[in-house]
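Hey, sorry to bother you again with one of my protein questions. I've been staring at a protein lately and its backbone has me curious. I owe you a coffee for this, so here goes:
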Amino acid sequence: MYNPSSLKAEEFICHEEIMSTLDFAHQHKNDAALIDEIISKAKECKGLSHREALVLLDCDIPEKNQEIFKLAEDIKKQFYGNRIVLFAPLYLSNYCVNGCLYCPYHAKNKHILRKKLTQDEIRQEVIALQDMGHKRLAIEAGEDPVNNPIEYILESIKTIYSIKHKNGAIRRVNVNIAATSVENYRKLKEAGIGTYILFQETYHKESYEKLHPSGPKHNYAYHTEAMDRAMDGGIDDVGLGVLFGLETYRYELAGLLMHAEHLEAVHGVGPHTISVPRVKHADDIDPSAFDNGIDDDVFAKIIAVIRLSVPYTGMIISTRETPQCREKVIHYGISQISGGSKTSVGGYAVPEDEELKSEQFDVSDHRTLDEVVNWLMKLGYVPSFCTACYREGRTGDRFMALCKNKQIHNCCLPNALMTLKEYLMDYASPDIKKVGESLIQSELNHISKDKVRDIVKDNLVKIENGQRDFRF
């Protein structure tokens, strides 16, 4: 039944194949020879199959696990260097008609504050985000055809792109909204979105249907096949993710990697990003109600195995996680993080009333964007606000060709340094600006091409003199 080239959800995410994979991995978790063979394959940076990945995930041999973590860190550096892209979520509305049991936006929750931002409120939120220094947003909205129709989403994107406040500008809007039609995906593409992101929540069909007892999201196939419709609508950068904790993590990782294999088989382009959220406490949601929670060590192993299996993908971790957890896992594959985030509808421009909350989940990392930037730099990472690939047409197969050949860093590092310079000039506190200037000077030496380095140096001077938005 398993067919990665099929367009039917139950054939490219095949339950029987997943169960067979889990059994195979369990039987071979101490097979040192097979594990060595898989690690050797991973070193070629061409990726691993879902079955090979699950063997590494189940591996019980301590020294082999150390190899896996070390290799994940090495592969991440080969593809993405030491840069970390920063973004923020912007919640437009929490009106929702679905009955998702893990989300406080579910339709039966009568005491959460329901809100929908007007275009004027969106303007104020965007100005507040620009004043922090953000250049990239991920917009979020509940599924509600009356309150949140596609026309509202499109108008909101247009509003976001139109706002130029001081030196601020949101240069890329990624979109995380419910599964929709090819026609609507085409409209989103025409609106100039970056990545379309949709979390599967769980790949286990029976669990999926129980967790989504009502609403359009109950349709497992329509949801799971959404990325194919997005591709058909012209969106060539898509982002996958599961909500770890709803089902067993081994099942979810197998399904996630099978979905990546499906996108490669059908469209020739795998996931642009993979997100790794875990179930967290929210308004009327108790994460302990779900039996499949994972600790930080397992979480780190999952991230490392994803990096080995899908080496080209960007990996995202949000402020759901604590600073300590984010610092632990950032080395093993993460390339994008949120900073200074709010998961409420509004709250950037005017703090939300403590008694009237609209959050989707509790934030565990409450640091400001400036504090996150400082933290990254002290860890030796280059905070990046780059959006160049999207605006230069390096999306889909064009991005993947550069990334898989490990050439994307030739653009990424110069762009990261120039956008970091913008941040330092416009938003950073004096102490953090000093740290950043030192980092930029050090990182210039890692630009291998003399001509590129000279252009970057010249542009850094221009940024100091007030010009903005240079990119390769």
The chain has a mean pLDDT of 94. The chain has two domains: 77-390, 408-464. The radius of gyration is 21 Å. The first helix runs from residue 9 to 12.
